[in-house]
Amino acid sequence: MDYSSWVDTSLDLNINPLRVKSEVPVDAERFGMARELKPAFMDFQTKPTAKEETGALVVEMNRVSEENRKLTEMLTVMCESYNALRSQLMDYMSKNGEKELLAPSKKRKSESSNNNDNNIAMNGHSESSSTDQESSKKPREEVIKDKISKAYVRTEAGDKSLIVKDGYQWRKYGQKVTRDNPCPRAYFKCSFAPSCPVKKKVQRSIDDQSVLVATYEGEHNHPYPSMEATSGSNRSLTRGPVPCIASLASSGPTVTLDLAKSKSSNDDSSSKPRADTPEVRKFLVEQMASSLTKDPNFTAALAAAISGRMLQQSHSEKW
DNA sequence: CGCCTTTGACCTGCGC
DNA sequence: GCGCAGGTCAAAGGCG
């Protein structure tokens, strides 16, 4: 599957001068703005610095266009790399996955291996059948560890907290720095119900430290907290655990690809994100457009580019 | 004042 | 048996 084909990564900044030339006067006249706009443009052009400013704007527009082109290339490379890694992972899982699941691991911390993490993340499996692995642990944990799930949550780049908002109320009871990951691992217990046996481990991904890996152990023996009960500072507004969130973040707008799938679709074929459907493509494009338009830097650059083109065009018309 | 976080100490399982 | 590493406990302090 070619994931680079999911989304048209080009921003399609159509800054055709002919369009500006043909549309702007018409619109201005249509809305009766010609008298107000034209003097403004004329005044702007007659200023001694107008030429320089126009040139600067054109340079800025070219710079933005070049940056856009580079970002597009980077995104394409990332998609291709992800595609290749996924293919390798699928091959590896098809060969060794079943064998590893059946063989009880002697190592206690088999879950900390990044390959295992990625297996679950890529497939969107919110629950893993690790009962066999956990059965070797001490008896008092057997009741708790019959249900293990993982969630991957992207956080803000500067956010150093280990808080995963999943709607439940948690009490932190420990924190450890593990050997395979310099980022500390936080241990939480469900504090919504005193008898709730659910525990949660949260640790930043070693590969991408903006991603929090939350491991849930056990099942809640109480109903999901209501929105009123979860409206506090640490309460979440999301309902239920987030199975998988994969994001493509840049320095500018963040495009989040939610690859979560429903728990009911556990077969391997349906675990692949149906991004080739028109609905998903439309959704992704809308999300990208929304992210871009919300970014003030992008809108400012876009406005500068458009105004630069307008000025350039009107300037060339005059000459 | 109660709840939560922090953090060092302690417990437990596993490999050598 | 010993050391290492993950997991848990509980006292202390912070905060609303």
From TrEMBL:
Transmembrane segments: none
Domain WRKY: 159-225
Keywords in alphabetical order: DNA-binding, Nucleus, Transcription, Transcription regulation
Keyword Isomerase attributed: no
One of the record's GO molecular function terms: sequence-specific DNA binding
Biased composition (Basic and acidic residues): 134-143, 260-280
BP-aspect Gene Ontology terms: defense response to bacterium; defense response to fungus; regulation of defense response; response to molecule of bacterial origin; response to salicylic acid
UniProt-annotated location(s): Nucleus
Superkingdom of the source species: Eukaryota
One Gene Ontology term, aspect cellular component: nucleus
Region feature (Disordered): 102-143, 258-280
SUPFAM superfamilies from the UniProt entry: WRKY DNA-binding domain
Protein name as it appears in the record: WRKY transcription factor 40
Organism: Populus alba x Populus x berolinensis
